[in-house]
Amino acid sequence: MPLTTEEPQIHESAQGPRVTPAASRTAQTPRPVPGPRPAAVPRPGRPGPSPAAASRAGGAPRPAPPAQRAPQATPAPAAPTAPSVSAAVPQIQLIPASAEGALDAAEEAVDLLLDTGRAPGDILVLTTGDPHPWAAHELSFGEAAYWALHDAGDDVFYADAAQAERAAERPVVVFATNGGPADATIAALPTALARAGTLLIVCGDPQQVNSVLGTGV
User: What number of CA atoms fall less than 13 Å from residue 43's CA on the CB side?
Assistant: First the structure.
């Protein structure tokens, strides 16, 4: 029996079972990628997050706290200063002189005061004996004109020590014990000290002056 050439055929039984998709299964839908969560809705009666809290939640940097200022020290109250004794009590300067030379010593003291810058109106000169030639000259025009010069206060004024209470206070008083009654110095020297604002210059016997004023100058 002759052989015939035939192409090999593959029967369906040899191909294996066919896989068909199940009609009941459906393709799965991909899940969405989670994004940022929305801000929570505030509950009634509770305030929502403040803007500062919201900015911190979003990652905004916090502002640097302000630098604290150091507390300033309160200055202690200044202690009250005691009044100066030298401002209340005038300085006393003694120029030893006899009764005959006391007036000349007073003149030299006045010249020295003027040379060192004292104003003429700052000086009052008192004499226990004969009046100063200037005083004698001005008194010749009358008491009123004489004391008017004293009240003007623009020049050196010469007066009798017995009238020291009538004279006004001046920064410097020059007291000349140039004679006169024995008790003239005792009576007038304390008044001369009271009329001196800063300085009393006494031209006379040191022992007598110290006994009256009770000082050791």
Answer: 2
Neighbouring C-beta atoms of residue 23, cutoff 10 Å: 6
3-state secondary structure of 214: coil
Please answer whether residues 158 and 122 qualify as being in contact, where contact means their C-beta atoms are separated by less than 8 angstroms. Answer: no
pTM (two decimals):
0.60
| Contact criterion met (CB below 8 Å) for 82 and 188 | no
Question: CA-CA distance, 4 to 10, in Å (whole number)?
Answer: 18
The pLDDT of residue 133 is 95
Tell me the three state secondary structure of residue 204.
strand
Instruction: Give the single-character DSSP code of 162.
Output: G
Which of 55, 95, 112, 63 has the alpha carbon at shortest distance from 176?
A: 95
For 12-26, 125-139, 192-206, which range has the lowest pLDDT when averaged over its residues?
12-26
Report the SS3 class of residue 134: helix
User: What letters, b where the CB count within 10 A reaches 16 and e where it falls short, cover 8-22?
Assistant: eeeeeeeeeeeeeee
Beta strands across the sheet bearing 91-96: 91-96, 196-204, 170-176, 123-127, 157-160
Q: What sign does the dihedral 88-97-153-144 (CA atoms) show? A: positive
Give bridge partners of residue 92 from the DSSP assignment: 200
* 164 contacts 188 by C-beta, under 8 angstroms: yes
